[in-house]
C-alpha cells in the first residue's frame, strides 16, 4: 500500500535561557524517495521546534489522499495531536503554543488518513537519528535564524 512516512524532530540549545537557538528537521519518504528538510529560529523552545518539524513536513505534501504515518520522539506532539487537542479545543484551554497547535490541527484535518506514532529518541532508529541531526543543523544556522518573537 502506498504511504508517506515522515520522521520529525526538534532541538533547542539553551532551551530555558532568554537567548537561544532552535531547529527542526524532518525526513519524508515516499516510493523509495527521501526528502530532508530543516530550519530554525532564535528565541524559541524545544516544544515549538518539535511542532514546527511536523508542520513544515506536512506543508511539503501536495497530495492529501495518500495515507501518512508521522513518527516523532516527542510525547508532547504525539499525545497532543492524538489525545489532548480535542479537549483543549472544546474547553478553550490551549495555554502554550496555541498558534502552532492550531496550525497542526488544521493541517491534519486536510489529509484523508494521517496517523502519529511515538518513537523513542536516541535509540538507534535510523530516520529518527537523521531527523535529529537535521534539527541540530537547523539550530546552528546562526546568521540565518529569525527571531521567532518577531514573526506574525
From TrEMBL:
GO molecular function: metal ion binding; nucleic acid binding; RNA-DNA hybrid ribonuclease activity
E.C. designation(s): 3.1.26.4
CDD domains membership: RNase_HI_prokaryote_like (cd09278)
Cited PROSITE patterns: RNASE_H_1
One Gene Ontology biological process: DNA replication, removal of RNA primer
Cofactor names: Mg(2+)
This protein's UniProt keywords: Endonuclease, Hydrolase, Magnesium, Metal-binding, Nuclease
Cross-referenced InterPro entries: RNase_H, RNaseH-like_sf, RNaseH_domain, RNaseH_sf, RNaseHI
Catalytically driven reaction(s): Endonucleolytic cleavage to 5'-phosphomonoester
Domain RNase H type-1: 1-140
EC top class named in words: hydrolase
Quaternary structure note: Monomer.
PANTHER family attached to this UniProt entry: RIBONUCLEASE H1 (PTHR10642)
Family: Belongs to the RNase H family.
Protein name: ribonuclease H
